[in-house]
Specification:
Elements lengths: L9 E3 L4 E8 L3 H9 L1 H4 L6 E4 L7 E6 L3 E11 L3 E7 L12 E11 L4 E9 L7 H25 L2
Length: about 160
């Protein structure tokens, strides 16, 4: 089975955001699980995913081999439609997360009577960072590869 091919991420330099929308040939519930359950998140996004619970204010870490571990906090939760994660960078710690972080928000929309899902990620807050342009370009490439992995994981585990 061939994986759904999706357009790459885009940068809005004026709004300091990176955005990507992908279509996944799987039901929203399956996609929702893949973006909210740590044991599934690590199947496509990094190699460490820890969350103490699934609710606003929950804390944890996401980690990527070669890049380190980053503190995470759930900022918004509207199951099964939207979740937003704030994640640190520039050596942020949980206590100064707000000052050194961006927020990425997943929204899920059912397509084809629920047989497929449109997933959009918008990462915002790059204007908080030391080098917004560099961070946006880095994360633009990151979302291209990571969301391709998400599509392959969810479609392949059907």
């Amino acid at each position: 089975m061939s994986m759904t091919i999706n357009n790459p991420s885009t940068i809005d330099a004026d709004a300091f955001t990176v955005r990507r929308t992908v279509t996944i040939a799987a039901a929203p519930a399956k996609v929702w699980a893949a973006v909210t359950r740590p044991e599934l998140i690590i199947q496509w996004f990094g190699d460490v995913a820890e969350l103490d619970r699934l609710e606003v204010g929950a804390e944890g870490e996401f980690g990527f081999e070669g890049y380190g571990r980053f503190p995470v906090r759930i900022e918004e939760l509207d199951a099964p439609h939207a979740i937003a994660y704030r994640w640190g960078n520039e050596n942020a710690t949980p206590s100064d997360l707000d000052a050194h972080s961006t927020v990425f928000r997943f929204t899920l929309e059912p397509l084809d009577d629920g047989a497929a899902t449109r997933l959009t990620v918008v990462e915002s807050g790059f204007d908080n960072l030391t080098d917004p342009a560099k961070a946006m370009e880095s994360n633009r490439g990151g979302w291209d590869s990571e969301l391709d992995e998400l599509v392959a994981f969810v479609e392949g585990s059907a």
